[in-house]
Amino acid sequence: MNDKIARFFAERRPATPCLVLDLDVVEENYTALATALPDARIYYAVKANPAPHILELLVRLGSSFDTASVQEIDMVLAAGARPDCISYGNTIKKQIDIARAYERGVRLFAFDSIAELDKIAAAAPGSRVFCRILTSGEGAEWPLSRKFGCDVAMARDLLLRAAGKGVVPFGISFHVGSQQRDPNQWHAALAATAQLFRDLEAEGVELKMVNLGGGFPTRYRSDVPPTEAYGAAIFKALRTHFGNRIPETIVEPGRVMVGNAGVIESEVVLIAHKSADDDRRWVYLDVGKFGGLAETMDEAIQYPIHSHRTGLTERVVLAGPSCDSADVLYERADYRLPVDLCIGDRLQIHATGAYTTTYASIGFNGFPPLQEYYI
Ligand SMILES: *Cc1c(COP(=O)(O)O)cnc(C)c1O
Predict the structure, then answer these.
(1) Cβ atoms 109, 127 nearer than 8 A
(2) Which atom of ligand 1 is nearest to the CA of 354?
(3) Residue positions annotated with a catalytic role
(4) Mutation pick for ligand 1 pocket among 42, 108, 178, 358 (CB with most ligand atoms within 8 Å)
(5) Which atom of ligand 1 is nearest to 214's Cα?
(6) Strands 18-21 vs 262-272: parallel, antiparallel or unpaired
(7) What domains lie within the chain, and their CATH numbers?
(8) pLDDT per residue as tens digits for the range 127-186
(9) Which H/E stretch holds residue 55?
Protein backbone atom coordinates (compact mmCIF):
# COMPACT_ATOMS: atom_id res chain seq x y z
CA MET A 1 0.00 0.00 0.00
CA ASN A 2 1.48 3.36 -0.96
CA ASP A 3 1.90 6.26 1.49
CA LYS A 4 -0.91 8.32 0.03
CA ILE A 5 -3.50 5.58 0.53
CA ALA A 6 -2.07 4.65 3.96
CA ARG A 7 -2.34 8.28 5.06
CA PHE A 8 -5.94 8.48 3.87
CA PHE A 9 -6.91 5.40 5.92
CA ALA A 10 -5.01 6.64 8.98
CA GLU A 11 -6.42 10.17 8.93
CA ARG A 12 -9.95 9.58 7.69
CA ARG A 13 -10.72 6.17 9.22
CA PRO A 14 -13.50 5.62 6.64
CA ALA A 15 -16.25 3.13 7.50
CA THR A 16 -15.59 -0.31 6.03
CA PRO A 17 -15.79 -1.89 3.59
CA CYS A 18 -14.46 0.75 1.25
CA LEU A 19 -12.17 1.15 -1.73
CA VAL A 20 -9.54 3.89 -1.78
CA LEU A 21 -7.97 4.46 -5.17
CA ASP A 22 -4.92 6.62 -5.92
CA LEU A 23 -5.40 8.48 -9.22
CA ASP A 24 -1.64 9.11 -9.49
CA VAL A 25 -1.17 5.36 -9.93
CA VAL A 26 -3.72 5.33 -12.76
CA GLU A 27 -1.73 8.08 -14.45
CA GLU A 28 1.49 6.07 -14.04
CA ASN A 29 -0.21 3.00 -15.49
CA TYR A 30 -1.47 4.97 -18.47
CA THR A 31 1.97 6.41 -19.13
CA ALA A 32 3.65 3.00 -18.81
CA LEU A 33 1.29 1.45 -21.34
CA ALA A 34 1.52 4.39 -23.74
CA THR A 35 5.31 4.10 -23.56
CA ALA A 36 5.34 0.32 -24.00
CA LEU A 37 3.00 0.49 -27.03
CA PRO A 38 3.84 3.89 -28.54
CA ASP A 39 1.96 3.28 -31.80
CA ALA A 40 -1.25 1.89 -30.31
CA ARG A 41 -4.19 4.05 -29.40
CA ILE A 42 -5.44 3.32 -25.88
CA TYR A 43 -9.17 2.66 -25.42
CA TYR A 44 -9.69 2.26 -21.68
CA ALA A 45 -12.16 -0.59 -20.99
CA VAL A 46 -14.62 1.41 -18.92
CA LYS A 47 -16.16 -1.61 -17.22
CA ALA A 48 -13.00 -2.15 -15.14
CA ASN A 49 -13.84 0.97 -13.13
CA PRO A 50 -16.10 3.70 -14.49
CA ALA A 51 -15.64 6.22 -11.66
CA PRO A 52 -15.97 9.78 -13.03
CA HIS A 53 -12.60 10.76 -11.49
CA ILE A 54 -10.87 8.02 -13.48
CA LEU A 55 -12.67 8.83 -16.72
CA GLU A 56 -11.91 12.56 -16.37
CA LEU A 57 -8.25 11.85 -15.68
CA LEU A 58 -8.01 9.60 -18.74
CA VAL A 59 -9.75 12.17 -20.95
CA ARG A 60 -7.12 14.67 -19.81
CA LEU A 61 -4.34 12.19 -20.64
CA GLY A 62 -5.72 11.70 -24.15
CA SER A 63 -7.23 8.24 -23.78
CA SER A 64 -10.04 6.84 -25.88
CA PHE A 65 -12.67 4.50 -24.42
CA ASP A 66 -14.07 1.02 -24.99
CA THR A 67 -17.67 0.85 -23.82
CA ALA A 68 -20.23 -1.91 -23.42
CA SER A 69 -23.53 -0.01 -23.06
CA VAL A 70 -25.20 3.34 -23.71
CA GLN A 71 -24.87 4.07 -19.99
CA GLU A 72 -21.09 3.70 -20.23
CA ILE A 73 -21.06 5.88 -23.36
CA ASP A 74 -22.94 8.58 -21.44
CA MET A 75 -20.51 8.37 -18.53
CA VAL A 76 -17.58 8.80 -20.88
CA LEU A 77 -19.22 11.73 -22.68
CA ALA A 78 -20.03 13.34 -19.31
CA ALA A 79 -16.34 13.06 -18.44
CA GLY A 80 -15.57 15.19 -21.50
CA ALA A 81 -14.61 12.61 -24.13
CA ARG A 82 -15.47 13.22 -27.76
CA PRO A 83 -17.69 10.63 -29.43
CA ASP A 84 -15.01 9.84 -32.00
CA CYS A 85 -12.88 8.57 -29.09
CA ILE A 86 -15.46 5.94 -28.18
CA SER A 87 -15.76 2.36 -29.37
CA TYR A 88 -18.92 0.40 -28.71
CA GLY A 89 -17.03 -2.85 -28.22
CA ASN A 90 -19.67 -5.16 -26.83
CA THR A 91 -20.65 -7.74 -29.44
CA ILE A 92 -24.08 -8.12 -27.82
CA LYS A 93 -26.16 -4.96 -28.23
CA LYS A 94 -29.83 -4.14 -28.60
CA GLN A 95 -30.53 -2.39 -31.90
CA ILE A 96 -32.12 0.53 -30.02
CA ASP A 97 -28.86 0.99 -28.08
CA ILE A 98 -26.82 0.96 -31.29
CA ALA A 99 -29.16 3.71 -32.55
CA ARG A 100 -28.69 5.69 -29.33
CA ALA A 101 -24.91 5.38 -29.58
CA TYR A 102 -25.07 6.53 -33.21
CA GLU A 103 -27.22 9.52 -32.18
CA ARG A 104 -24.49 10.45 -29.71
CA GLY A 105 -21.88 10.39 -32.47
CA VAL A 106 -20.30 6.97 -31.94
CA ARG A 107 -19.10 5.47 -35.24
CA LEU A 108 -17.04 2.43 -34.23
CA PHE A 109 -18.79 -0.85 -33.42
CA ALA A 110 -17.83 -4.47 -32.71
CA PHE A 111 -19.64 -7.55 -33.95
CA ASP A 112 -19.08 -11.29 -34.23
CA SER A 113 -22.23 -12.55 -35.95
CA ILE A 114 -24.36 -11.81 -39.00
CA ALA A 115 -27.34 -10.76 -36.89
CA GLU A 116 -25.28 -8.19 -34.99
CA LEU A 117 -23.78 -6.88 -38.25
CA ASP A 118 -27.32 -6.42 -39.60
CA LYS A 119 -28.34 -4.48 -36.48
CA ILE A 120 -25.35 -2.15 -36.85
CA ALA A 121 -26.01 -1.68 -40.58
CA ALA A 122 -29.63 -0.76 -39.82
CA ALA A 123 -29.04 1.53 -36.85
CA ALA A 124 -25.60 3.00 -37.53
CA PRO A 125 -25.18 3.30 -41.32
CA GLY A 126 -21.75 4.27 -42.59
CA SER A 127 -20.03 3.30 -39.31
CA ARG A 128 -16.75 1.47 -39.04
CA VAL A 129 -17.12 -2.10 -37.85
CA PHE A 130 -14.61 -4.61 -36.57
CA CYS A 131 -15.08 -8.33 -36.20
CA ARG A 132 -14.00 -10.15 -33.08
CA ILE A 133 -12.33 -13.51 -33.52
CA LEU A 134 -12.11 -16.34 -30.99
CA THR A 135 -8.92 -16.96 -29.02
CA SER A 136 -8.00 -19.87 -26.76
CA GLY A 137 -7.76 -17.85 -23.54
CA GLU A 138 -4.77 -19.99 -22.62
CA GLY A 139 -2.49 -18.44 -19.99
CA ALA A 140 -5.20 -16.16 -18.62
CA GLU A 141 -6.33 -16.25 -15.01
CA TRP A 142 -9.73 -14.86 -15.98
CA PRO A 143 -10.37 -16.33 -19.47
CA LEU A 144 -13.21 -14.94 -21.56
CA SER A 145 -14.08 -18.33 -23.07
CA ARG A 146 -16.16 -18.94 -26.16
CA LYS A 147 -18.80 -16.38 -25.37
CA PHE A 148 -17.19 -13.76 -27.63
CA GLY A 149 -15.79 -13.95 -31.12
CA CYS A 150 -16.32 -16.15 -34.16
CA ASP A 151 -13.90 -18.34 -36.04
CA VAL A 152 -11.63 -16.94 -38.71
CA ALA A 153 -13.60 -18.32 -41.67
CA MET A 154 -16.78 -16.72 -40.38
CA ALA A 155 -14.98 -13.42 -39.72
CA ARG A 156 -13.76 -13.42 -43.30
CA ASP A 157 -17.24 -14.04 -44.64
CA LEU A 158 -18.87 -11.39 -42.43
CA LEU A 159 -16.30 -8.70 -43.25
CA LEU A 160 -16.73 -9.44 -46.95
CA ARG A 161 -20.44 -8.87 -46.58
CA ALA A 162 -20.12 -5.72 -44.46
CA ALA A 163 -19.45 -3.28 -47.30
CA GLY A 164 -22.54 -4.45 -49.14
CA LYS A 165 -24.59 -3.59 -46.09
CA GLY A 166 -23.47 0.03 -45.97
CA VAL A 167 -20.92 -0.13 -43.15
CA VAL A 168 -17.13 0.08 -43.40
CA PRO A 169 -15.23 -3.19 -42.77
CA PHE A 170 -12.53 -1.64 -40.63
CA GLY A 171 -10.66 -4.27 -38.68
CA ILE A 172 -10.28 -7.32 -36.49
CA SER A 173 -10.33 -7.59 -32.73
CA PHE A 174 -9.55 -10.29 -30.21
CA HIS A 175 -9.02 -10.59 -26.47
CA VAL A 176 -6.42 -13.06 -25.23
CA GLY A 177 -8.13 -13.41 -21.83
CA SER A 178 -8.01 -11.17 -18.81
CA GLN A 179 -5.05 -11.23 -16.39
CA GLN A 180 -3.01 -12.78 -19.19
CA ARG A 181 0.34 -13.83 -17.71
CA ASP A 182 1.97 -14.77 -21.01
CA PRO A 183 3.01 -11.88 -23.30
CA ASN A 184 3.41 -14.35 -26.19
CA GLN A 185 -0.31 -15.10 -26.33
CA TRP A 186 -0.81 -12.25 -28.82
CA HIS A 187 1.38 -14.10 -31.31
CA ALA A 188 -1.12 -16.73 -32.50
CA ALA A 189 -4.00 -14.28 -32.61
CA LEU A 190 -1.94 -11.88 -34.71
CA ALA A 191 -0.91 -14.67 -37.08
CA ALA A 192 -4.58 -15.41 -37.73
CA THR A 193 -5.37 -11.71 -38.00
CA ALA A 194 -2.63 -11.05 -40.57
CA GLN A 195 -3.82 -14.00 -42.65
CA LEU A 196 -7.33 -12.53 -42.59
CA PHE A 197 -5.97 -9.15 -43.71
CA ARG A 198 -4.29 -10.85 -46.70
CA ASP A 199 -7.30 -12.99 -47.60
CA LEU A 200 -9.61 -10.01 -47.54
CA GLU A 201 -7.19 -7.84 -49.49
CA ALA A 202 -7.21 -10.48 -52.22
CA GLU A 203 -10.98 -10.01 -52.33
CA GLY A 204 -10.64 -6.25 -52.57
CA VAL A 205 -11.42 -5.41 -48.92
CA GLU A 206 -8.65 -3.45 -47.26
CA LEU A 207 -8.82 -3.58 -43.47
CA LYS A 208 -7.13 -0.80 -41.54
CA MET A 209 -7.13 -1.67 -37.86
CA VAL A 210 -6.17 -4.39 -35.39
CA ASN A 211 -7.74 -4.20 -31.97
CA LEU A 212 -5.34 -6.03 -29.64
CA GLY A 213 -7.88 -6.13 -26.81
CA GLY A 214 -7.07 -6.12 -23.10
CA GLY A 215 -5.55 -8.81 -20.94
CA PHE A 216 -2.56 -6.88 -19.57
CA PRO A 217 -2.19 -8.07 -15.97
CA THR A 218 -1.90 -6.38 -12.64
CA ARG A 219 0.19 -7.80 -9.81
CA TYR A 220 -1.79 -9.84 -7.28
CA ARG A 221 -0.06 -12.44 -5.10
CA SER A 222 2.52 -13.38 -7.67
CA ASP A 223 4.72 -11.43 -10.05
CA VAL A 224 3.64 -10.72 -13.60
CA PRO A 225 5.83 -9.62 -16.52
CA PRO A 226 6.22 -5.83 -16.76
CA THR A 227 4.16 -3.84 -19.24
CA GLU A 228 7.27 -3.33 -21.44
CA ALA A 229 7.48 -7.11 -21.96
CA TYR A 230 3.96 -7.03 -23.42
CA GLY A 231 4.82 -4.09 -25.63
CA ALA A 232 7.94 -5.85 -26.92
CA ALA A 233 6.20 -9.19 -27.54
CA ILE A 234 3.30 -7.54 -29.34
CA PHE A 235 5.54 -5.38 -31.51
CA LYS A 236 7.60 -8.45 -32.43
CA ALA A 237 4.45 -10.38 -33.36
CA LEU A 238 3.17 -7.46 -35.46
CA ARG A 239 6.51 -7.29 -37.30
CA THR A 240 6.60 -11.04 -37.83
CA HIS A 241 3.08 -11.27 -39.25
CA PHE A 242 2.59 -7.91 -40.97
CA GLY A 243 6.18 -7.16 -42.01
CA ASN A 244 6.56 -3.47 -42.80
CA ARG A 245 2.82 -3.01 -43.32
CA ILE A 246 1.73 -2.85 -39.70
CA PRO A 247 -1.84 -1.51 -39.55
CA GLU A 248 -3.28 0.98 -37.10
CA THR A 249 -3.51 -0.70 -33.70
CA ILE A 250 -5.61 -0.10 -30.63
CA VAL A 251 -5.56 -1.68 -27.16
CA GLU A 252 -8.36 -1.93 -24.62
CA PRO A 253 -6.71 -2.15 -21.21
CA GLY A 254 -8.97 -2.41 -18.18
CA ARG A 255 -7.37 -4.23 -15.27
CA VAL A 256 -3.81 -2.97 -15.83
CA MET A 257 -4.97 0.63 -15.77
CA VAL A 258 -6.64 0.62 -12.35
CA GLY A 259 -6.07 -2.70 -10.56
CA ASN A 260 -2.98 -1.80 -8.54
CA ALA A 261 -4.27 1.71 -7.79
CA GLY A 262 -6.89 0.59 -5.27
CA VAL A 263 -7.00 -0.91 -1.78
CA ILE A 264 -10.13 -2.19 -0.06
CA GLU A 265 -10.21 -1.93 3.71
CA SER A 266 -12.39 -4.49 5.44
CA GLU A 267 -13.24 -5.34 9.04
CA VAL A 268 -13.07 -8.82 10.55
CA VAL A 269 -16.64 -9.60 11.64
CA LEU A 270 -16.17 -13.10 13.04
CA ILE A 271 -13.45 -15.67 13.63
CA ALA A 272 -14.70 -19.21 14.23
CA HIS A 273 -13.88 -22.91 14.22
CA LYS A 274 -16.26 -25.56 12.92
CA SER A 275 -15.53 -28.10 15.69
CA ALA A 276 -13.42 -28.43 18.83
CA ASP A 277 -10.57 -30.09 16.92
CA ASP A 278 -10.88 -28.01 13.74
CA ASP A 279 -7.43 -26.57 13.07
CA ARG A 280 -8.46 -24.02 10.47
CA ARG A 281 -10.06 -20.77 11.49
CA TRP A 282 -12.80 -19.28 9.41
CA VAL A 283 -12.34 -15.54 9.12
CA TYR A 284 -15.46 -13.69 8.04
CA LEU A 285 -15.00 -10.21 6.58
CA ASP A 286 -17.47 -7.39 5.97
CA VAL A 287 -16.79 -7.64 2.22
CA GLY A 288 -17.30 -10.70 0.05
CA LYS A 289 -18.31 -11.94 -3.37
CA PHE A 290 -21.43 -9.76 -3.40
CA GLY A 291 -19.68 -6.71 -1.99
CA GLY A 292 -17.25 -6.37 -4.87
CA LEU A 293 -14.95 -9.39 -4.74
CA ALA A 294 -16.76 -11.37 -7.45
CA GLU A 295 -13.49 -12.24 -9.16
CA THR A 296 -12.67 -14.57 -6.28
CA MET A 297 -15.05 -16.95 -8.06
CA ASP A 298 -13.26 -20.32 -8.29
CA GLU A 299 -10.48 -18.49 -6.39
CA ALA A 300 -9.34 -17.20 -9.81
CA ILE A 301 -8.10 -13.79 -8.75
CA GLN A 302 -6.09 -13.97 -5.54
CA TYR A 303 -5.75 -10.57 -3.93
CA PRO A 304 -2.90 -9.95 -1.48
CA ILE A 305 -4.44 -9.50 2.00
CA HIS A 306 -2.59 -7.76 4.83
CA SER A 307 -3.04 -7.30 8.56
CA HIS A 308 -1.17 -4.71 10.66
CA ARG A 309 -0.29 -7.52 13.09
CA THR A 310 3.12 -9.05 12.63
CA GLY A 311 3.00 -12.27 14.69
CA LEU A 312 3.03 -15.90 13.60
CA THR A 313 0.58 -16.74 10.87
CA GLU A 314 -1.65 -19.75 10.25
CA ARG A 315 -3.86 -20.92 7.40
CA VAL A 316 -7.37 -19.56 7.30
CA VAL A 317 -10.52 -19.81 5.25
CA LEU A 318 -11.78 -16.38 4.19
CA ALA A 319 -15.45 -15.67 3.66
CA GLY A 320 -17.81 -12.75 3.16
CA PRO A 321 -20.67 -11.63 5.40
CA SER A 322 -23.71 -12.53 3.29
CA CYS A 323 -26.15 -15.39 3.84
CA ASP A 324 -25.11 -17.26 0.72
CA SER A 325 -22.81 -20.26 0.91
CA ALA A 326 -21.20 -19.20 -2.39
CA ASP A 327 -19.82 -16.22 -0.50
CA VAL A 328 -16.54 -17.92 0.43
CA LEU A 329 -13.49 -16.09 -0.91
CA TYR A 330 -10.62 -18.51 -0.40
CA GLU A 331 -10.75 -22.04 0.96
CA ARG A 332 -8.32 -23.99 -1.26
CA ALA A 333 -5.80 -21.20 -1.83
CA ASP A 334 -3.11 -20.88 0.80
CA TYR A 335 -4.06 -17.75 2.76
CA ARG A 336 -2.37 -17.10 6.11
CA LEU A 337 -3.21 -14.51 8.72
CA PRO A 338 -1.69 -13.75 12.13
CA VAL A 339 -2.67 -16.05 14.98
CA ASP A 340 -3.50 -13.00 17.11
CA LEU A 341 -5.91 -11.56 14.52
CA CYS A 342 -9.02 -10.29 16.35
CA ILE A 343 -12.63 -9.57 15.58
CA GLY A 344 -12.82 -5.85 14.78
CA ASP A 345 -9.35 -5.77 13.15
CA ARG A 346 -9.08 -4.06 9.81
CA LEU A 347 -7.53 -5.90 6.87
CA GLN A 348 -6.26 -4.40 3.63
CA ILE A 349 -7.12 -6.16 0.38
CA HIS A 350 -4.65 -4.94 -2.20
CA ALA A 351 -4.85 -4.46 -5.98
CA THR A 352 -8.63 -4.10 -5.88
CA GLY A 353 -9.03 -1.08 -8.15
CA ALA A 354 -10.41 -3.12 -11.08
CA TYR A 355 -13.65 -5.10 -11.33
CA THR A 356 -14.80 -4.47 -7.75
CA THR A 357 -17.07 -1.43 -7.36
CA THR A 358 -19.19 -2.36 -10.37
CA TYR A 359 -19.50 -5.97 -9.26
CA ALA A 360 -20.82 -5.01 -5.82
CA SER A 361 -24.51 -5.87 -5.47
CA ILE A 362 -26.86 -3.01 -4.71
CA GLY A 363 -28.17 -4.45 -1.50
CA PHE A 364 -28.01 -8.23 -1.10
CA ASN A 365 -28.86 -8.93 2.54
CA GLY A 366 -29.26 -5.17 2.96
CA PHE A 367 -25.52 -4.52 2.69
CA PRO A 368 -24.91 -1.27 0.78
CA PRO A 369 -22.63 -1.21 -2.27
CA LEU A 370 -18.91 -0.72 -1.75
CA GLN A 371 -18.01 2.85 -0.73
CA GLU A 372 -15.40 4.45 -2.99
CA TYR A 373 -12.85 7.24 -2.49
CA TYR A 374 -10.69 8.63 -5.29
CA ILE A 375 -7.69 10.58 -4.06
C1 LIG B 1 -13.25 -6.53 -20.44
C2 LIG B 1 -12.76 -6.15 -21.77
C3 LIG B 1 -11.52 -5.53 -21.90
C4 LIG B 1 -10.59 -5.28 -20.74
O5 LIG B 1 -9.92 -6.45 -20.37
P6 LIG B 1 -8.76 -6.43 -19.30
O7 LIG B 1 -8.33 -7.84 -19.24
O8 LIG B 1 -9.33 -5.91 -18.02
O9 LIG B 1 -7.69 -5.54 -19.81
C10 LIG B 1 -11.13 -5.15 -23.16
N11 LIG B 1 -11.90 -5.36 -24.24
C12 LIG B 1 -13.10 -5.96 -24.16
C13 LIG B 1 -13.91 -6.14 -25.38
C14 LIG B 1 -13.57 -6.37 -22.92
O15 LIG B 1 -14.76 -6.97 -22.84
Answers:
(1) yes
(2) 8
(3) 323
(4) 178
(5) 9
(6) antiparallel
(7) 24-258 (3.20.20.10), 260-374 (2.40.37.10)
(8) 999 999 998 777 777 777 678 999 999 999 999 999 999 999 999 999 999 999 999 999
(9) helix 52-61
